[in-house]
Amino acid sequence: MQRLGSGFDDMMPQTFSSMLDRFFNDSVNSRERLNRFSPQVDTCETEKGYELEMALPGLKKEDIHLDFQQGLLTISGERHFKNEQQDKRYHLIESQYGSFSRSFQFPDTVNADNIEAAFENGILHVRVPKDEQKTAKRRIEIREGAAQPIQLERDNVSAENKGNSSGGTKKKQSATTNGTGTH
């Protein structure tokens, strides 16, 4: 059986050595946090599209860039640390600073021309609508008859048919006919 601490015991160093280790580790971690910023994102899908909310405290809309290319939405920017006050000496900095870039892959059913973004109270709201024509359900008619290869009409006339005087197309003979035209 193990005695559970109050939680406060876990935070207090047991020896001077562990206190120094904790001080230097926290200092190193704080410096690393100044150089990396990975904003938190909430994403969801609705019937009409996709929605993203990204927490970007301390940024202005001019600090944020959105790009969409080949189904990939990239949100990037930079949050600067402003240490303008000379009379303060920071002991711990838990806020994240630095440049960031987050990318999100979308299916080809989105309408890239109608993507909207708004920035309000430190939250970036992005709406990526679905293309109704690409997401609409279509019923495909099934025809009756023997399974035959479906021939698609071509816009281009082949070189062998160009010289034909009957409008540029030749009638194909059936594979079952002989040279006399009888079956």
UniProtKB/TrEMBL annotation:
Domain SHSP: from-to ranges: 32-145
Domain of life where this protein originates: Bacteria
InterPro entries per UniProt: A-crystallin/Hsp20_dom, HSP20-like_chaperone, Small_HSP
Gene3D superfamilies reported in the protein's UniProt record: 2.60.40.790
Residue span of region Disordered: 142-183
A Pfam family recorded for this sequence: HSP20
Biased amino acid composition, Polar residues: 174-183
Similarity comment: family membership: Belongs to the small heat shock protein (HSP20) family.
Name of this protein: Hsp20/alpha crystallin family protein
Originating species: Rufibacter latericius
